[in-house]
Amino acid sequence: MKSNVTSDLHVEHVTKTYPDGTTALQNISFHVNKGEAVALLGHNGSGKSTMFKCLSGFERPTSGSIYLQGTDLASLSRRSFKPVRKKLGMVFQHFHLVYNLSVFQNVLFGRMGHHRSILPVMAPFASSDNRDRAMMCLDRVGLAHLADRRSDQLSGGQQQRVAIARMLMQEPEIVLADEPIASLDPKAGREVMELLWDIVEEQSLTVVCILHQTEIAKNFADRIIGLHKGQIVLDTPASSISAGELDQLYYGSGRKAAHA
Ligand SMILES: Nc1ncnc2c1ncn2[C@@H]1O[C@H](COP(=O)(O)OP(=O)(O)OP(=O)(O)O)[C@@H](O)[C@H]1O
């Protein structure tokens, strides 16, 4: 079902209660415009991953709606979700590569949503177009020289670059990133964020990125949304957010803001 919603992502009064009765999201509403980069912050258990799962279609909200470029996700059958899903590029904390396969093969898998079967994305059968595209994506993340290496023989930072190349292979319009640098050391994490952000800026992609590093969020995102106990308690341009507001998000009113 199409709506007249014009933003890339539109979350309207979303509540999510798990079968055991835990309410992880309570009446959440926000929208993300095309090309906008939003960082989703909040302490452990505030509902970030549940939001990510609802945005990506892995979980359905108990009530409320999520529109992706105007299409209500809840209205889609499994089959009709596929073309919509193709627009969503995902980056995860633990990379989700197939580790006993080559870097090149992992990047080819990113094209899966463009085909009806797995065959056209298997290296021995892939078209020259797909093969060239995979090498271009690897080149963009600086890893073309490692195309033939097994993915488990890369550093964490390199594995995340492969995951980004795989996402590029998909040609997404919206990027959902779930703690993309949480498994990396500070230097590798910063380099991966710089790469990811260069790519989303050059392709004008819309981004929702879950982060725990507030400095990184301030430096990279256009806007910061803060969750607390499943509710939005902060929705502010990153350029104008104060250290006190971030402190408040993580430590609540019981703690005096360290930088206020
Ligand atoms: N499958 C589930 N079944 C029941 N409760 C769940 C489930 N998944 C998450 N929860 C609960 O929902 C709440 C929000 O969890 P969620 O994982 O979304 O938070 P989070 O902000 O991503 O936390 P973290 O930063 O630790 O990943 C928590 O109370 C959690 O225990």
Descriptive account of the structure:
The longest helix has 17 residues, at about 185-200. The strands form two sheets. The chain has a six-stranded mixed β-sheet, with helices on both faces. A four-stranded antiparallel β-sheet has the order 2-1-4-5, with helices on one face. The protein has two domains: about 1-85 and about 175-180 and about 205-260, 3-Layer(aba) Sandwich (Rossmann fold), CATH 3.40.50.300; about 95-170, no CATH class. The chain has eight helices and ten strands. The protein has helices at about 50-55, 80-85, 105-110, 130-140, 155-170, 185-200, 215-220, 245-250, and strands at about 10-15, 25-30, 35-40, 65-70, 70, 90, 175-180, 205-210, 225-230, 230-235. Helix content is about 30%, strand content about 25%. With about 260 residues, the chain is α/β, with parallel strands linked by helices. The termini are far apart. α3 runs parallel beside α5 (about 155-170) and α5 runs parallel beside α6 (about 185-200). Residues about 255-260 have low confidence and may be disordered. Bound molecules: adenosine-5'-triphosphate (ATP). The site of adenosine-5'-triphosphate (ATP) has 12 residues, from α1.
